[in-house]
Structures are given as C-alpha cells and as structure tokens.
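Researcher: Sequence recovery benchmark, item below. Answer with residues only.
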C-alpha cells in the first residue's frame, strides 16, 4: 500500500491513473498533478468515487516541486509529463527522498536530441541517496527492452541481431494527428535516423531506409528505420549485439502532411517573430493539432509491436519473434484511451508496481532490461497487454 504522485495529465497520464486506480492494494493513495489542473480534474471525475486527488504543479520549477512533493510525501513519482521535465523531477526526487519512474529519456527543449547520458549521470546520486530511478518504462522503450531480456534469459546464449518493429495499423479518422505529444513525436521522426552496427552508430538521412515488414494479424506495412532510445541502453547491456535497429510504420497520408509541414517551416524549433513576439513554429503546430488524448473514441484497428531477434543457443543459430497486438477500440472501452497511450501507460503502471512491491528495487538509475523480466511479463498478461512468442520464426530481415 503506497502513496504515488503521477505528474502529467495527457493521453499517457490518463491511462496510468486509470490503471493504478484499478489496484488500490498497491496504489492506495493517488495524486495526479499537472500544469493544467482542469485536465487532472477531468480524469479524476471519469474515474469517479473520489479516488484520485488532483493538483496544479509546474514541473520545470525544482523548488516548487520539492515543496509540493514534501506536502504529499509519496513513495514514488511517476513522470508522464514531457521529456523536458525529466531532470527537474529527478532533482526534486533526490531532494525529497522519493523513488522515480519515467517513460521517455531527457531531451533539452532547444536541441532536438535525446539520449540517456544526462539521466545515467545521476547514477551515483541515486545510489548514495538509497533511491531508485527506473527509466523508459513505456512500451518502446520499456516493454521492448524487457522482451529482449526475456529472449536473452530464455532463448539465447548470445543475441547478435535485434530489430524492434513497431506498427500502428489503426485509423483515427483525422487528416493528420500524432499518437503522442505532437512536439515530441515530430522532433523524434524528423531528426536523422541511426542504428548500431559492429560497434558503432551509423547515421542516415531521416526516413531514408525503409522496407515492408509483415506484422501479425495486420500484414505487410512499409516500415521506416528511426533512432529510438532503447537501442542505446540495449547495445550497452547486451554487448554481443552486432546490429540493432528500430522500425516504425507510417501511412502515406501522414508522410505527405509531414513533408509539407517541414517544407513550410512548421516543424522548426527555432523561434520566429510573430506580431512582435517570439513563437516556436512546432509549439504553435502542437496547439492546432488534435490532442492525442482525444483520439480514442472512433479509433479502429490495432498496434503490433515486437522484437525480431537472431542469435545462437547451444552453438546453433536461432531466430525468434516476440510481440504484442493491441486493439484501439478495446483500450477505449476499458479506459477511454487510444492504443498508443494505453501501450505506454500500462507498462508505466506495472513498472511502478514492480518497484513498490519490491520485485524491482535497488538504489541507482536503471533501464528496464536490468531486472528480472518474469514478474513484469506475467503482469503484462494480467493487465491488458498479452504477448506471444515464436522460436524459429521467419524474420523480415537479411543477416
Ligand atoms: P501529452 O502532451 O498528452 O501530455 C503531457 C502532459 O504533461 C500534459 O498534461 C502537460 O500539461 C503536462 N506537462 C507538460 N509540461 C509540464 C510542466 N512543466 N509541469 C507539469 N506538467 C507538464 O503527452 P503524452 O501523454 O502523449 O506523453 C507523455 C509522455 O509519454 C511523453 O514524455 C512521451 O514522450 C512519453 N511516451 C512514451 C512512449 C513509450 O512507449 N515509452 C510512447 C508514447 C509517449 P498541459 O496539459 O498543460 O500541456
């Protein structure tokens, strides 16, 4: 029975709160805080029963956060605000003696670059304070790391090739919308792609490598090679990996809109003067695009995310595929969310549960593959994200 503070009341935050509220024996007291309190109140009223407390907080401001955390005195902070707030919330957790969890690695607001170095640098501070920080505990990163660990423990002596394959074969009926925060999403996919091969990172032009990949229950979809943060921790924690890549599907309509927006400068993060004030085009674009948290109602289709792996076991080549498929409509029925928020929010709840129940608890800063995958994999089944695996699978790639 623990008090938990959830920061961020967007699409993902709403799922985390709904899922935590379903387990009062673990999350006995829940406070949802965000920049805009009315969004917290709406989520709390959807859940009902006076189960969720709400508050306003500016997570960019460390002294404000410290005073706020002290006033509630939680055991854990679940950060589902934006990557920009990771370091301020970690600082506040250190100052107040509270454990920390997030779903996306730190990214400075003025440079579109994400990597773990900033958060890994907190390792000694968290160890010394006897506190734990669990980084990147959504689906990808998060579950994809745990899938890889599960494969390493149960099916391989050495993993050599890892391809993470992420498909959203859903339709929300909008001309153009992103499935999570538009600013973070567009920054991620418009930067250069990158993959790991033979001990080094290979950089490519954005979206310049693509191929069709056959997804379970979906069929072949054109998939684009991107840099994704879990590659960074996975190649560090599994040094036998010779090549690690991340692939994501995009529909032609999405790509056409994105190309036009880029061409006219709307995806830029450099401020421009508008009627005498500085505005950032991408921030303005976010304000006019649909809120990802509202896409769920008429969303049809499903997501399919997994890991295709090749390596060796007992001296023999092994191929292996592990994946989850998730229907948008089922997510909406359960927690009024679309599948991308759901597949992120459920693992965040389970990660928090792992920490609070002591299955995963050691001082320091960790990625999800650094723990025993079994209790987490069992909970994925129980709490809405069942997974499937196939040894000897036919994989989409050449080796
Ligand atoms: P949203 O934009 O929908 O929600 C973000 C929330 O954070 C909003 O409620 C926002 O407040 C709040 N917020 C922003 N800045 C502050 C601040 N300074 N202080 C307090 N609250 C703040 O984003 P999503 O829910 O789509 O995404 C949440 C996180 O999940 C992101 O970090 C995203 O990268 C990550 N993610 C991870 C995935 C994974 O699989 N690992 C997949 C998808 C997302 P306001 O309403 O006022 O704007």
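Model:
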């Amino acid at each position: 029975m623990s008090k938990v503070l959830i920061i961020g009341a967007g699409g993902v935050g709403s799922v985390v709160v709904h899922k935590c509220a379903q387990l009062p024996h673990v999350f006995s007291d829940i406070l949802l805080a965000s920049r805009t309190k009315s969004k917290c109140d709406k989520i709390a009223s959807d859940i009902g029963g006076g189960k969720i407390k709400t508050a306003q907080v500016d997570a960019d401001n460390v002294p404000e956060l410290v005073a706020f955390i002290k006033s509630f005195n939680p055991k854990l902070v679940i950060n589902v605000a934006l990557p920009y707030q990771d370091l301020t919330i970690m600082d506040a957790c250190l100052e107040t003696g509270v454990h920390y969890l997030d779903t996306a690695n730190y990214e400075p607001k003025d440079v579109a670059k994400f990597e773990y170095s900033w958060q890994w640098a907190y390792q000694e501070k968290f160890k010394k304070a006897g506190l734990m920080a669990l980084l990147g505990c959504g689906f990808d990163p998060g579950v994809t790391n745990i899938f890889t660990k599960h494969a390493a423990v149960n099916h391989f002596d050495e993993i050599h090739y890892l391809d993470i394959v992420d498909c959203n074969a859903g339709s929300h009926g909008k001309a153009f919308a992103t499935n999570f925060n538009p600013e973070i999403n567009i920054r991620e996919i418009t930067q250069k792609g990158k993959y790991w091969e033979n001990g080094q990172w290979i950089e490519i032009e954005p979206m310049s490598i693509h191929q069709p990949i056959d997804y379970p229950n979906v069929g072949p979809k054109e998939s684009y090679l991107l840099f994704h943060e879990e590659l960074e921790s996975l190649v560090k924690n599994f040094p036998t990996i010779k090549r690690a890549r991340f692939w994501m599907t995009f529909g032609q309509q999405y790509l056409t809109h994105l190309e036009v927006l880029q061409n006219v400068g709307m995806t830029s993060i450099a401020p421009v003067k508008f009627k005498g004030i500085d505005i950032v085009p991408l921030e303005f674009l976010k304000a006019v695009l649909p809120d990802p948290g509202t896409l769920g109602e008429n969303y049809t289709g499903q997501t399919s995310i997994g890991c295709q792996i090749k390596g060796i076991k007992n001296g023999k080549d092994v191929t292996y595929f592990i994946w989850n498929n998730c229907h948008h409509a089922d997510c909406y029925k359960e927690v009024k969310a679309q599948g991308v928020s759901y597949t992120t929010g459920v693992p965040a709840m389970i990660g928090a549960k792992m920490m609070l129940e002591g299955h995963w608890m050691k001082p320091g800063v960790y990625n999800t593959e650094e723990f025993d995958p079994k209790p987490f994999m069992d909970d994925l089944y129980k709490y809405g994200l069942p997974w499937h695996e196939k040894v000897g699978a036919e994989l989409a790639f050449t080796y």
